[in-house]
């Protein structure tokens, strides 16, 4: 009986993995089947619709982004086209352009494409250019304070750290990942699941380690939202040192990166 149960559990697990894999493959296919419409296709599509229809669809896209942004979840183009844009896909570029303009003029937000390969978008506060770390440091949001500490450790250690270093650092701050925290709840889940889904962190398995080990890196959202100069200022105050004494980090923090482009062009 127990052997049959084990066999059943094994089959159930493998079936679940196959279904999960199929789901991921389907999501990828959803995006590969979508081709960015040409200017002429957009113009023809616009001629078949009334201004009210285009405005309504744009409003639905804006609402979808705002709902996702509440949980800091990036928006995938495949999901946007499949669940919101739908039959209006021939005018997708025009809808995105109008949505971007709405975020800019009405909400003071900027739409950014953080992943050009998988076409993922986020909203950032346009009112704080180059100063994205301020909400992270805000004491009114303890979870963002936790994130700021983790990103600081990763940055100061050269951009990649083993997870044990993060857990040990948090323990020194009396945040034990093995215990439920009054502000964060399940600390390990917040760090390895929530922050990863939000694209603040990357949590990557290190090959050929037994027992299995992982390492942390900055995620794509952190790259566009969090100011490395602010982290250096924070570390300088903490250690009573001139930020320039960390020469490598100082050069990186003050180098200009033009890799992130507004998502409205896509």
Summarize the structure.
Helix content is 57%, strand content 13%. With 266 residues, the chain is α+β, with helices and mostly antiparallel strands. Strand 5 (180-181) and strand 6 (185-186) form a beta hairpin.
Q: What characteristics describe this protein?
A:
57% helix; 9 strands; four-stranded antiparallel beta sheet; alpha+beta; three-stranded antiparallel beta sheet; single chain; elongated; disordered C terminus
Task: Write a structural description.
With about 270 residues, the protein is of the alpha+beta class. The chain has 12 helices and 9 strands. It has helices spanning about 1-30, 40-45, 50-70, 75-85, 90-105, 135, 140-155, 165-170, 185-195, 220-225, 230-240, 245-255, and strands at about 75, 110-115, 120-125, 160, 180, 185, 200-205, 215-220, 260. The longest helix has about 30 residues, at about 1-30. Strand 7 (about 200-205) and strand 8 (about 215-220) form a beta hairpin. It is elongated. The N and C termini lie far apart (about 55 Å). It is about 55% helix and about 15% strand. Helix 1 (about 1-30) crosses helix 4 (about 75-85) and helix 3 (about 50-70) packs across helix 5. The strands form 3 sheets. It has a 4-stranded antiparallel β-sheet.
């Amino acid at each position: 009986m127990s052997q049959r149960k084990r066999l059943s559990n094994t089959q159930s697990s493998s079936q679940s993995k196959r279904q999960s894999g199929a789901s991921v493959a389907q999501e990828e296919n959803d995006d590969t089947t979508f081709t960015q419409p040409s200017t002429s296709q957009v113009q023809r599509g616009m001629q078949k619709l009334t201004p009210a229809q285009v405005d309504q669809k744009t409003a639905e896209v804006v609402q979808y982004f705002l709902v996702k942004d509440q949980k800091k979840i990036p928006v995938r183009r495949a999901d946007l086209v499949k669940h919101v844009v739908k039959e209006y896909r021939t005018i997708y570029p025009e809808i995105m352009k109008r949505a971007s303009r709405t975020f800019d003029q009405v909400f003071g937000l900027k739409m950014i494409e953080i992943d050009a390969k998988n076409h993922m978008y986020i909203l950032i506060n346009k009112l704080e250019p180059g100063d994205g770390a301020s909400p992270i440091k805000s004491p009114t949001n303890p979870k963002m304070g936790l994130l700021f500490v983790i990103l600081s450790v990763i940055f100061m250690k050269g951009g990649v750290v083993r997870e044990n270093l993060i857990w040990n650092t948090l323990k020194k701050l009396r945040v034990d990942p093995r215990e439920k925290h009054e502000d964060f709840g399940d600390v390990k889940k917040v760090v390895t699941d929530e922050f990863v889904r939000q694209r603040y962190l990357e949590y990557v398995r290190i090959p050929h380690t037994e027992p299995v080990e992982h390492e942390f890196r900055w995620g794509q959202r952190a790259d566009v939202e969090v100011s490395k100069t602010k982290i250096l200022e924070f570390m300088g105050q903490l250690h009573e040192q001139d930020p320039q004494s960390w020469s490598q980090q100082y050069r990186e923090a003050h180098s200009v990166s033009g890799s992130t482009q507004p998502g409205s062009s896509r």
